[in-house]
Write the structure tokens for this entry.
Amino acid sequence: MNDSTRFFTIGLIAAWYSSNIGVLLLNKYLLSNYGFKYPIFLTMCHMTACSLFSYVAIAWLKLVPMQTIRSRVQFFKISALSLIFCVSVVFGNVSLRYLPVSFNQAVGATTPFFTAVFAYLMTFKKEAWVTYLTLVPVVTGVVIASGGEPSFHLFGFIICIAATAARALKTVLQGILLSSEGEKLNSMNLLLYMAPMAVVFLLPATLIMEENVVGITVALARDDVKIIWYLLFNSALAYFVNLTNFLVTKHTSALTLQVLGNAKGAVAVVVSILIFRNPVSVTGMMGYTLTVFGVVLYSEAKKRSK
């Protein structure tokens, strides 16, 4: 790898880290500290931006070749994935109203556990016993962190667990539903079709469950126009997370992305504590550390089993 390629890759990784942690912290700020208590509407803004930017990136800028939906069956499969994706993102945003980012990330690190469970239940896929063993510290760490979390909120914790499970279910279903050669879509094309479907699912949900949210947002903007800029920047950043995710995978590997993702969780915990000053106990930090250690072991066990 020459110097220019190395710097480009490092720049991509830095952009991926910044956008991932940035959108997480901004979501927390809007939904908890700023008081914008409309997670479904916020998610709909994200998906609207992903729809627009995905079309520009693929149809106009030709970043990747456009792939088409080949059948009605494939359309329904993508719709199902989109619905589960909506649930995971909305629940994740809801949990940020009640939990600090640090604890949210610790719970989110249990994704491999739920992925292994769903893979076994739906495809009867078994991993090596060592792989299952590495999931013990992942779950144990979250249990310890929960007991030592000063800002623990039961409803927020349950919703966060549901968001993590939905994220894992989407990953497993994606592998099942789009596994045939004729149905494979790269992540950017999949987002191109999933994002507008997500908007269709989220629009009635926000109108029913977050009544008059548009009017309230306009009223907020009259008092503080920054809310509009926050929403626009946050939505653009949500697309940038997906774009940089794709580019980092393309220029490195899926395994590298997984390893970087493990470290990202730890970085997000530290940054969120520094910014939001949420109290963290020694027991909580021990739990976070054990969970991250377990995820690293899980990644290594998966790599060796292939």
Q: What stands out?
A: The radius of gyration is 19 Å. The chain has a mean pLDDT of 90.
